Amino acid sequence: MKNIKMIDSLSHKRVIQFARSRKFSVNRKKRPVPIEELNSNLQQQSQNELSRIVRPYYEIQEPVLIRNFIDGGTPAIHRWKDLDYLCDKVGYNTPCSVEIGGSYNSNIARNEILFGEYIAYMNLFHEQYGSTSKGTGENDNRPQSEELVYMAQNHLFPSLKDDFTMPDLVGSMSKLKTKSSDSCGFRNSRNIVGHGHVYSTMIWFGPSHCISPLHYDPLDNLLMGFVGKKKIVLFPKDQNDGDDYNRTYSSDDSKSEKTKWHYAGYNGQQYNTSPVDICNPDYKLYPNFENVPQAW
User: Fold this and answer.
1) How confident is the model at residue 203 (pLDDT cuts 50, 70, 90)?
2) In the chain, how long is the greatest CA-to-CA distance?
3) Which residues contact 132 (CB under 8 A, 6 or more apart)?
4) Measured between alpha carbons, how far is residue 149 from residues 25, 95, 96, 210, 292 in Å?
5) What stretch of H or E contains 256?
6) In the predicted model, is pLDDT for residue 104 greater than 80?
7) What DSSP letter does each residue of 68-109 carry, written as one string?
8) Were 191 and a residue from 168, 183, 185, 262 both cysteine, which residue would form a disulfide, CB within 3.0 to 4.6 Å?
9) Are 5 and 67 in contact, with CB atoms under 8 Å apart?
10) pTM attached to this predicted model
């Protein structure tokens, strides 16, 4: 996210993350995401204010974008721009999981390589295409899909946890009591929004043009961006989605009126992931995508 933005996508929202601008068929249906801005520069006051702002959005399960919570002094903002730092901190021989093709879905194999090898790839990519690769014309120097390698959805490396502060609102990543925690084992538990524990902390790291497919998460999400930017599109939860989370579709379902517009679980996808390319949807194959709701 640009300008140190933080987005809480909340549960059951379909999330599409873009790194490049392409014609998007539902842009005409977009509605603005509420934007809130923290006023306090003091860490604890800003923690209190952040929880106060996020809580009502959590209760109605709608997204909100928070500005100014991650300040310029956060180490990750500066350190994570340095690939050599990341390699030294994480370790060259530490394994990581990557996707070839820039988008993780059922059609792309997930491969395990060494983190140092991935850093070497990132250096080569930057040499070839630059760190932003903003080209938009036919003759621009843009990578081919097969050149994209995306370190998507890896568990956060423990050695990087000290480079940023987890907000109080998510609770604690463990029940270990510290000097700043209360009797429940949480830091400032009055600021907790939701259940008060972190299910997992994941990291996404890759070159420009990497895309996450249309999907939804059964858990509430807090997305924090430290380096680079992401374009994110959110769709509201379908009222009946909870009835068929584990449903799989056959090819005969594609044109059924009962098939949901997002086709999650269809055509071999995981139950929470859609095969529809939102940047270039195939309405013949997925006609119900015409019924896409208004997005944020």
Assistant:
1) very high
2) 62
3) 208
4) 26, 15, 12, 8, 30
5) none
6) no
7) SSS-TT-HHHHHTT-HHHHHHHH-TT-EEEEEETSB-STTS-
8) 168
9) yes
10) 0.75
- CA angle (230 as vertex; 46, 15 as ends), nearest 5: 90
For residue 193 the two structure tokens come to 């929004």
Contact by Cβ (8 Å): 70, 61: no
Q: Which two tokens stand for residue 65?
A: 């974008």
Distances 29 to 156, 230, 248, 286 between C-alpha atoms, Å: 35, 20, 28, 19
Cβ atoms < 10 Å from Cβ of 245? 13
**Cα(167)–Cα(44) distance, rounded to whole angstroms?**
10
Using only the alpha carbons of the chain, give its radius of gyration: 20
Residue type, 119: I
- In sequence order, the 6+-apart residues with CB closer than 8 A to the CB of 136 are 21
In angstroms, rounded to a whole number, what is the distance separating the alpha carbons of residues 171 and 250?
41
114-155: pLDDT as tens digits: 999 999 999 999 999 887 645 444 446 788 888 899 999 899
Give 125's contacts (C-beta < 8 A, 6+ positions apart): 143, 147, 207
**Distance, first Cα to last Cα, the chain:** 15
Tokens in use for 173? Answer: 């990543």
Short-list 10, 3, 59, CA closest to 223: 10
DSSP letter at 111?
A: E
Q: What are phi and psi of 156, to 5 degrees?
A: -60, 130
Q: Which residues pair with 235 in a beta bridge?
A: 14
Q: Which of 100-109, 123-132, 133-142, 171-180 has the lowest mean pLDDT?
A: 171-180
pLDDT over 70, % of the chain: 69
